[in-house]
Amino acid sequence: MRAVKRTERSLRADRPAADHPADRAATRPRTPPPGPRPALELLVHGVGGTTPQEMLDDPHTVRVSGDDTAALYRRAADADAESRPEGHRDGPVPEAYVWCNLTSGDGSRALWLLLLPFMVVNLAHWMRPTTRGRPRTVRLYGLLVRLTGLTLTVLFVAAACEVALDLAAWQCAGTRACAARHSWLGFLAPGAGWWSTPGRRLALAAAIPTALTGLLWYLSHRTWSAYESQQPPHHGSAPEAEGESADGALSRPGFWYGRRLVARLRAAHTAVGLLTVAAALAVPA
Fold first, then answer.
1. What is the DSSP string of 233-261?
2. What span, in angstroms and rounded, lies between the C-alpha atoms of 121 and 235?
3. pLDDT in tens, 243-257
4. pLDDT tens digit string along 2-26?
5. Residues 6 or more apart from 81 whose CB is under 8 A from it?
């Protein structure tokens, strides 16, 4: 079963270059004529997945945007609909969004669930109501959302510190009875060897939240390399620019381009995570 959503949106004149010659011909830059633009009917399949030919009910389709992971397709006859709006006055132009490859892969993809809370904060940023002519409000809202994201990082790493440093290394490994019940903590028990002193136990346990921070950095870097670092089709407004364009944020060619912005945010979250580990080690209980 597929969900069908009809929407009217501004179409960019250019599309990313495609691999197939027919796709390149359909996606070369073009300037839409003045006047009303054709409406789009966006078709999105369900979790079962399907082909663009089945969604559009046409064996001849071309990719107008995206890549092998997720892409938008149209009928070959509708590939240049922007340059011929008069030929599509009877109804919207169907466009199929094929995303089935986003859910394919090995078991390591489950690690992306670690970034789910941060995704919710990111959505909160883009759900801000329209505030034209109020740049200070926009900046304040963005600051509060980013502080919320940093707070999530602190809570996430602090929870790991609580388990690894306090419960395991300090409390359980510090008593012979508890360490005896958990053989994997035996080398940390008092008098068991070089690692048995409290400072060394805590330093060793700090490797767990530090590794967790490194894992968050790695996952963020992978998405940054695959998506946010990709150059937009042509120079346009950067996604971090304040305010909104007349046609909405999604109509900006550089909406998804965030190479510098996302790199700064990743560095900030990594620094906050490492500072949380350092504070857990340095601040007395």
1. SS----TT-SS--TT-GGGSTTTT--HHH
2. 28
3. 444 455 666 667 778
4. 333 333 333 333 333 344 444 444 4
5. 38, 74, 87, 88, 93
